[in-house]
Structure formats: C-alpha cells, structure tokens
Amino acid sequence: MRPSVASSPVPTRGEAPSKTFAVKTRKLQLSRGKDRPLPTTVWYPATGDGPFPVIVFSHGLTAQPSDYADILVRWARAGFVVAAAAYPHTSTGVADFDVIDLLNQPADASYVLTRVLALDGKAGDPLAGRLDRDHVAAAGHSGGGITTIGMLSGTRDARLTAAVVLAGRQVLPGVFTGSAIPVLFVHGKRDKTVQYADGLAAYKAVPWPKAMLTLPDAGHVVTSGADFDLVADATTDFWRWSLYGDTGAERRLERRDNFDGDF
C-alpha cells in the first residue's frame, strides 16, 4: 500500500533547500573515555547559514565512515550535516574486533551527536549558529542499523526526530520506546548477511509512523548503479520531509515503487 503521511509528527518548517551545496569535510578526534576513541568525520554544507538538521551515521561491522562517503555526501549536498564515527571495536582493521561491542554503540552515537550539536554554540567554529538542534536524526547500515535501532529502543535518544535503517535488524535488548518518530527501513531482498525477513520483522515491530523500501534485486551492500541512486534519492527525500517538513519530498516518497508503510 502507499504510505499516508498526514499523521506523522513532522516539522512545519516548509521546504527544504532547493540548491545543491558544495560540501566540506572535517575530522573530530572524539573519545567517550580513554578506552573508547571515536574519530568522527563530519560532512557539511560549505555555504549557507542554515540552520541545517544533523544526522549521526553508524557504519557496519568491519567498515568505516569513508565507505559510505558517496551517500553521506549526497545528504550533505541537500542541506544536512552528517557525522559518522569509527567505532572502537567494530570498524575496519581494529586489532580487538568484538561484535558484542554493538551493545555500547548506541551510547557512542549519542555522545557523538552531543559533541557535534555543541559546535553550534562554539564561537568561531565553522558550524557555529548553523545547526538545527531541534531536528536531529540517526541512520546506519547493517551493524550500524542495529546501532540505530538501539538508539530508538532500550538506549533511546530522546533528541531524535527521525531515523533510517539500512539493511539492519533488531538484536539489542529493549523495545521501541519514547515519543513517536518516523522511521524508514531500506533492505535488499537478496541480502545474505542480514536476511530480508529479519529487516522486515524489525520494521513491523516499530509502533510509530514507518515505511519500508524494498530492493528486489539488491544484496547487503549497494554502492553503485540504479539501486544506489534509488536509495540515495529516497533517503534524501525522507530527510527533506521528516527534518524540513518538505511536502514536495513527501509526494515523491508516496509515488515510489516498492515503498510501503503508514507514515
């Protein structure tokens, strides 16, 4: 069925920026304690006063933020600030890889979000006065999708106003809690790493406005081609709608094939 977006708790700001921004990148050497370094890459519009909504992104197991640069840059070009940390025990090349450390990553992502939002009030910082602290979101792929679901569940971050889960599933303890926010799931039907059925089960468990974009021929990772463009365009429209209240983006979402939900 087509989603109805009328009942969603979205902002009433109006339209998202119509221009495409040049993007700058910066690195923040963050750490949530001496044993949890969180080096963070931030992609942000190079010009424009904003304020720009903020998205914290979580990478998958044995991955790193730069692996997702293509889609994260697309979001930043559309008028969003995107922050992505390399997690201390699940990112590329770590000596002490530990999948169980996923339990700690929702708190890591919330910490990163806190530190990035604080830059809005830091005199002289390139992001000072340019961040929309009332419209923030979380997104993640695979293990990062699990992390994002964790931020909506037992370790709920009450600041979140929207979320995107890419090829994720519900693993961490706890149920979806807190105020209702719109959540978009994206999953390939040929995913052999995180089964489509597991992603669908997580989607069905969300008690809030939600939708699922199904990619019939895609596997676990989509990095190029028509499916990548579809994911990049659909997620950008979701952010435009959920974080800016853009009704044009809402209508584009409603018209997409393989897109079901009850926003």
Could you describe the 3D structure shown?
With 263 residues, the chain is α/β, with parallel strands linked by helices. The chain has one domain (23-261): Rossmann fold, CATH 3.40.50.1820. Helix content is 27%, strand content 24%. The chain has six helices and nine strands. Strands 1-2-4-3-5-6-7-8-9 form a nine-stranded mixed sheet, sandwiched between helices.
Main traits of this protein?
263 residues, alpha/beta, Rossmann fold, 6 helices, 24% strand
- Under CATH at level 1, the class stands as Alpha Beta
Please write the string of helix (H) and strand (E) elements.
Answer: EEEHEHEHEEHEHHE
Largest sheet: 9 strands, mixed
Outline? globular
**Relative strand content:** 15-25%
Find the count of extended strands (DSSP E, 2+ residues): 9
Output the CATH homologous superfamily. Alpha/Beta hydrolase fold, catalytic domain
Q: Which regions are unreliable across 5 or more consecutive residues at pLDDT < 50?
A: 1-9
Continuous helix count: 6
Q: Work out the count of structural domains.
A: 1
For the record, the CATH architecture stands as 3-Layer(aba) Sandwich
> What structural category characterises the helix and strand content?
alpha/beta
CATH fold category name: Rossmann fold
Give the fraction of residues assigned to helices.
25-40%
Arithmetic mean of pLDDT? 93
**Rg (CA only):** 17 Å
Distance between the termini: 11 Å
Order of strands in the sheet with the most strands?
1-2-4-3-5-6-7-8-9
Question: How is the secondary structure organized here?
Answer:
Elements: E1 23-31, E2 37-45, E3 52-58, H1 69-77, E4 81-85, H2 105-118, E5 131-141, H3 143-151, E6 160-166, E7 183-188, H4 196-205, E8 210-215, H5 225-244, H6 247-255, E9 259-261
Parallel strand pairs: 3-4, 3-5, 5-6, 6-7, 7-8
Antiparallel strand pairs: 1-2, 2-4, 8-9
